[in-house]
Design goal:
- The chain has three helices and eight strands.
- By secondary structure, it is of the alpha+beta class.
- The protein has one domain.
- The N and C termini lie far apart (42 Å).
Length: 141
């Protein structure tokens, strides 16, 4: 058995079917026990198609929206999303609040930072953008 304490830094989820997928939240537990969470509210904040969800975030009374994914070329929906896990898992409540305020005040630091979070449209590239030296911004977000 291989033991590791390394936490994953990135994740990518893709829809490969014609059926619509509405993604509410994702929780990732690393082998080290680190927990990372993401929810559809981040996609909504970045103007991605969303829908109200009745699902509760575990351990809270919050109902984040779901964001739509679909792999059909005739829809404007994105077929995948990737994100930098550690950017969505601050280790203290004050850090989480500060980060949330930053993203509200400066949405491009969330929505156009491709290595932080990116919604994909039928461009299969097996590599997820990752942090090298600086963030990359594009007009498309």
């Amino acid at each position: 058995m291989i033991e590791t304490r390394i936490s994953p830094e990135y994740i990518r989820l893709s829809s490969t079917a014609a059926e619509l997928l509405c993604l509410v939240y994702v929780s990732v537990t690393a082998a080290s026990g680190d927990l990372r969470h993401w929810n559809g509210g981040f996609g909504k904040q970045c103007d991605k198609p969303w829908y109200p969800s009745s699902a509760l975030l575990p351990g809270t009374d919050q109902r984040p929206p779901c964001v739509w994914l679909n792999a059909v070329d005739t829809t404007p929906l994105r077929d995948g999303v990737s994100w930098h896990l550690t950017d969505f898992a601050p280790d203290t409540a004050p850090k989480a609040q500060t980060l949330g305020e930053q993203w509200q005040k400066f949405p491009n630091t969330l929505c156009r930072a491709l290595v932080r979070m990116q919604f994909w449209k039928r461009e299969f590239n097996p590599c997820i953008p990752y942090y090298k030296k600086s963030l990359i911004f594009t007009p498309e977000g």
